[in-house]
Predict the structure.
Amino acid sequence: MKPDRNKFSIEEPLSLSLDRSRDDFQPLSSTSERKMHGRPRKAYKPEEEAASASKAAKLRSLQTQFMSIHHHKIYTKEAIDLSRKLLEINPEAYTAWNYRKLAVEDTLSREESNQDLVKSILDEELKVVESALRQNFKSYGAWHHRKWVLSKGHSSVGNELRLLDKFQSLDSRNFHAWNYRRFAVELTNRSKQDELKYTEDIISKDFSNYSAWHNRSVLLSSLLARKAEGFTPNEKIPEEYKLVHDAIFTDEDDQSGWFYHLWLLDQTVNVETPLLTSSWPSHGSCINLSGGDGCLNDSSSSKLTTFCSDLGSFPLILYFDQPVSGVSSSTVAVDSELRGNEDLVWEPVSNKNSRVSCVWVARLNYMSSEPCFPKEYKVKVRIGNSPGIVSSRGCNFSTPYEFVFTAHVHDTVREDSQEVIVSWTDGFDIWDAQSKDLNFLVNLDQQMGLKWRQEAIEEEIELFRALSDSKIGKLTLARLLMAKAMISENGVKGVHYEEILELYSDLMVLDSSHYRYYKDEHSVALLHKVTSSTESLSRYLFQYRDINNSICLRLNNLSLSRIASVEKLLFVQMLDLSHNELHSTEGLEAMQLISCLNLSHNRIRSFSALDSLRHLKQLRVLDVSHNNIGEHSVDTTRYLCSSPLSNSEWTEDEVGRQMTSLVTKYWDAYFVLRDLDLKQLDIAGNVIAGDEFSSFVPQVVPKLVWLDGQKLRS
Amino acid sequence: MTCNNVLDEKVTSFTLNDMGELVADKHVRYILMTEKFTNECCFSEQVALLATLDMIHMFYIAGLQNEDGSFSGDIWGEVDTRFSYISICCLSILKCLDKSNVKKAVDYIVSCKNRDGGFGCTPGAESHAAQIFCCVGALAITGSLHHVDIDKDLLGWWLCERQVCYSWWVLSSLIMIDRVHWINKAKLVKFILDCQVYMENGGISDRPEDAVDIYHTYLGVAGLSLLEYPGVQAIDPAYALPVDVINRIIINK
């Protein structure tokens, strides 16, 4: 049967309405939406065909006439009425709404003084909108036209809320109506508290109202942030938990309440004021600094805190619990006898365009030109003495904090400049870590106001333990237990992780569609567990003989699909993450001391996924062999990588000028590798690692010595 | 501004009036159509035409940015993050993003971020998959995804929990924030293929029981590309255009 092209004629103004909201949480409403969505696919009977064809012909004729009056700027009564007829059939005819605005302006320009006429003209517009909305109350054009009329200032706003109530009863999930409500409320100066009550009324009639819950969260956030009368988090949040319980226990499958519950959990766990979570060096620690190509042979000092750098400087790392801006030499004072460190430059460890980050680094110089005996320097760091450190939500870092560490600077033992190849398979000894070596794992206890938070979470945990048979019940319980671990003092921590890991393992089976979400959460919980105590972490710490017993953290073969707990691992210099399931290095950027990194046998699909490594200024040895680089057509980190594609400036170098087609072909390898200062790289076992790419790499990384185990230069 | 250009038998004469109506052969378009038109030029590599339209579009689009960084659809001032996306997308393809105030544009989009990690059409508006695509896409193109760093997990989970398959909006957003591995790709491929019509002229619809149209056919195929369906060319999740085309335009200086 010949399809009727008229059914989806291109000449019909294509309304790219993106409105599918009702489909999210409710079955199709009975109101017809006859444009593109919801038109049944069926064979039409001949008389239906004919009726439909004649309807289409009428519409096309109307449109043609309308275009003509519009282009000729005809604003007679008949012409305006024609536009009304068109809008009655097709409220999405945006141009018709624009035409009506032009017509109104045309009339107003001539009849400004006649207030009654002006009002009646605008009232007529409101009527047209109302009738259009009854046809399709999701028409962007109609709602905007109404706003336009209201903003002229001649119409009564009191009616608007009444009209909205009528529409809400037809479809309470209509986000257009809610948006318009916000607009109208602003015009009437209704209080947020009254609006909050309104959301409660809607919710009590129907728990499954995502819009109402959403608006509730917006209003509450604002009232809490403003510290309005009677709105303190320790009182309000527990009340909200009670409110949402009714919703989530009435219908477990309905998502509205669950997302609100998730928001409440966020409000419970996340303290608004930014805090320092950890630092390197940490308070009370002692670090040995050495420079050049050689390193210390002094085995008496704790190997954990020996740092060698060919840069003659070491990174001072500050790790905050949330992204902050404003870390500078004015807001962070570093007192030290190490010379050459006035006016430190603090950089956020983040994308080039951003001045906000959880991690901030300043480099302290320690190499001096004169020969010196091993000298001991105390360094005191004071954070937040002057205001200026602010979270991305606008909260100030308010409680000044200071920590002190000691730096021993040693002369280097000059060895032959041997470019030693690092092997990841042998040369490791178990390291018998003492708790004094890992004392930086102690939490910086700065949090205040924890009591109501801990109590709220305890209550929720008790409630959900009784419910944990369903997917959402288990997931919520797992999230609650993680939240509890985050805001607990030390010592209690180790206890819950087994339960959390078991819950996620159950979920991987129970809800296999989201298997890899639960897998990621499982990895996060596992890493939290590993780093929760000295005892558990020390099982993974080894000493690598060939680089002066540097401490290597070996987290291989743990099925890790995600990196976490990095704030506890800032001291790590060698990291083995081989034989896991990582597809990106997201999170590693804070580990500023890493000089050797093994990512072989993971699931890395592109160099863009390694973008975070560009922040590791000490990185010299990288193994990404046996991954999936070059195998996939879809790059999931394409826009998370700094390159021209994500609007980053770049200075063209010789390679960029002379090898344009290779640079375009291997763009992410080019942009990432050129920012690394590697001596050793392994890429074998990736689809990308053919002759062409292997000869391209040394061009991009001129200082490279070892590629896939072969020495490149003598 | 006017330009005449003979592409083929169809004489196309373009004029851009105040309302962004690209009057071509008496077809009236809206800013939404400006984007499609610019994209079609990329496909057919009509360089001469593109160069002429460059100026027209650039000034028109940049001129629609408001004080607070938002973009209007036309002179009547409807503000919506959809327009932010379209403007940023067009200006980027035309390599003149700097003709707009990118920082303010980004700040406005971030102000539309919600507590569930998603985005709405204006500040305070609830999250909607299509708006999320527009906002995440705009942030991606302007290199501003770090603004959703802490929200990627929350947003990723919200997108995964959509009960109806909005293949393109949800998929492309998940890909841009690197959380697409959280959904069951095989299931989604099957859904899209179930929406195909095998007889008559083919095509894809929004649901298996609905009629087909060009819009959903395009988005269905694009979705299959993002799901790495064999034989389908790689598509860029932010621009909805082939990766090769975007690489060529953006990376080559």
User: Anything to note?
Assistant: DSSP finds 21 helices and 19 strands in chain A. The two ends of chain A are 76 Å apart (CA to CA). Chain A touches chain B through 88 residues (CB under 8 Å). The mean pLDDT of chain A is 84.
